[in-house]
Amino acid sequence: MAGVLKPGIKNIIFDLGDVIIPIDLRAPIRNFASLSGMSEEAVESLWKEHGLTMHYETGLIDDAGFRQHVRDLLKNDSWADEVIDTAWNTVLLDLPVERVDRIRELHGKYRLFLLSNTSAIHIQGVNKIFMALGQPSLEELFERVYYSYEVKMAKPSPEIYRHVLTTSGLVAEETLFLDDNPHNIRSAAELGIHAVQVQPPLSILDYLRDESTNEDIPHSS
After folding, report:
1. Does 1 fall in a domain?
2. Domain boundaries, position 46
3. Distance CA 87, CA 98 (A)
4. CA 134, 67, 21 angle in degrees (round to 5)?
5. What gap in Å lies between CA 202 and CA 12, rounded to an integer?
6. Residue 42 · residue 221 · CB < 8 Å
7. 188-191 contact pairs (CB < 8 A, 24+)
8. Cα 60 to Cα 51, 91, 128, 206, distances in angstroms
9. Which of 69, 91, 113 is where one domain is finished?
10. Are residues 74 and 109 in the same domain?
């Protein structure tokens, strides 16, 4: 496939889940179902009905509020914070260290940023995984990190992309954005960002090939 590092690209914005670290979005549902004795369908229905993930990932509730909402919805006041955090972080799978190595190789050649719909508990979990493998934290790996729960906006809202461009002084046409979600890609592309969907089994190792390639960037439609 064509590489995406082309002349004119000065900045790269990375998504986190399934771009840098693989994730299993169903794992927390399975684990909370097991802990509560409810079915996965019942847990998922409660999550969606109360917008729990969206509220947490856009900073409408904090860590303590999220944990208490989980206890209330799943009717178990005895769960310690660690029990909830561990179940919530089962979304995170093993880190392919070679992806981090590739990002580190790009330092000095491009300005590197992270933009993720995420929560504080997940970020703490990711950084623990990174550090256990001798890797820098996300905050050390990138010039600047943008977490939805901190900026109180989430992809695919155009406002979050404008926020990143404005606060970091980026030109859309000089910026490459890598994300696994087609809705996020479409929204970024509409602002003139070179938005590329990372689609398994390919990874950023396939997309971020040597910039000397002469093939065209695979723009999203």
Report:
1. no
2. 27-91
3. 27
4. 30
5. 18
6. no
7. 188/155, 188/156, 188/161, 189/219, 189/220, 190/158, 191/158, 191/161, 191/162, 191/165
8. 11, 21, 25, 37
9. 91
10. no
CA 36 to chain centroid, in Å, comes to 27
- Give the model confidence (pLDDT) of 28-85 as tens digits: 999 999 999 999 999 999 999 999 999 999 999 999 999 999 999 999 999 999 999 9
Residue holding tokens 């997940």? 122
Give this prediction's pTM: 0.92
- Dihedral over Cα of 205, 3, 169, 192: its sign: negative
Same domain as 173, residue 140: yes
Q: How far is Cα 116 from Cα 76, in angstroms, rounded to an integer?
A: 30
**Amino acid identity, position 161:** Y
Residue whose tokens read 């979990």? 125
